[in-house]
Amino acid sequence: MHARRLRQEVGGRLLVVNPPFPTMTTEQLDASFDLPYTRMPHPRYRKRGPIPAHEMIKHSINLHRGCFGGCSFCTISAHQGKFVVSRSQDSILREVRAVTAMSDFRGTITDLGGPSANMFRMQGREPRLCDECEKPSCIWPRICPNLQTDHRPLIEIYRAVRSMPGVKHAFVTSGIRYDLLLDGRAPPAVRQGHDQYVDELLAYHVSGRLKVAPEHTSDEVLKIMRKPSFALFRRFKARFDSVKARLGKPQLQLVPYFISSHPGSRPQDMASLALQTKELGFQLEQVQDFTPTPMTVATEIYATGLHPCSGRPVPVARTPEEKEEQRSFFFWYKPGLRDALRATLHRLGMDAAAERLLGAGKRKRANRH
Length: 369
What we know:
Blueprint: E1 6-10, E2 13-17, H1 26-33, H2 52-57, E3 60-62, E4 64-65, H3 76-79, E5 85-86, H4 89-100, E6 108-109, E7 111-113, H5 127-132, H6 152-162, E8 169-170, H7 188-204, E9 209-215, H8 219-225, H9 230-247, E10 253-260, H10 267-279, E11 287-289, H11 297-304, H12 320-328, H13 338-347, H14 351-358, H15 362-368
Parallel strand pairs: 3-7, 6-8, 9-10, 10-11
Antiparallel strand pairs: 1-2, 4-5
């Protein structure tokens, strides 16, 4: 909340990093969103035809700004701030009316979201505690007891938007933080709101796929990522499956995002990720290989091989071969990768895991006959 100016000598010169601006107020954020935007791409792109990124977001609504997740690989807190500032309902509905008036609008708001779709109006109960806090995350390694995780204001926004004239569907396609919905220390009324949020989200606001980001299955890697244990994903998946069955919506899918080659991740960890996700019924598609991004802790570890908080060495996959080896575990179900994965697992002494992941090898099948 009250950042310090950073100074560091580099090559005989002085590098100065100024503190970020204070978090905007709701009134300031509303004013920025209420400016008379054309909602069109820059004129220089007119001759290039449709722009995929613009097509994806032109009928979407951004509800808030900032993220208190503090993930070690993410720059959102660096360029939007750690603290969430939310728009007023009036400002959001004004933008919805502007979208419904667009000539190509056919009734679908493609996203009611934000950096994390369900952090709307979440802040510290006691602001003075936030003033003094220097922790990078409000929800890792556990949810701060000062953070209110009430989803009821967001439910009100959803209801108001879907009741607007001209709106047939209002989907949430930004990712959500499922750990906020599993806050066991929240007051009973807030926990009831968590359940209600999942019910309404799946009933009205998921077009087919709900995006979440467990990122990995290894608790050691997740600790470096500043992400919660994979056990929480299992809990949320169980709730997701239960609610969609109760709603009679078998077509709904939970889509998890994962990262390979993140600092701390070894081939053994990726093999375990492949096994665990297979056993949960997933064939992964929404995945990425770790990309160093300036101003993140993960990139500092990638560059130095050391964790800056402890000074301890961290294993890092850097070469194209190391990174491809880890990435290939995402796609264990592709026939062209099976032999290479089996050889990797044999080299790692994980033949039993290979059989669970890939099935019995040719030699074992021959022995059985």
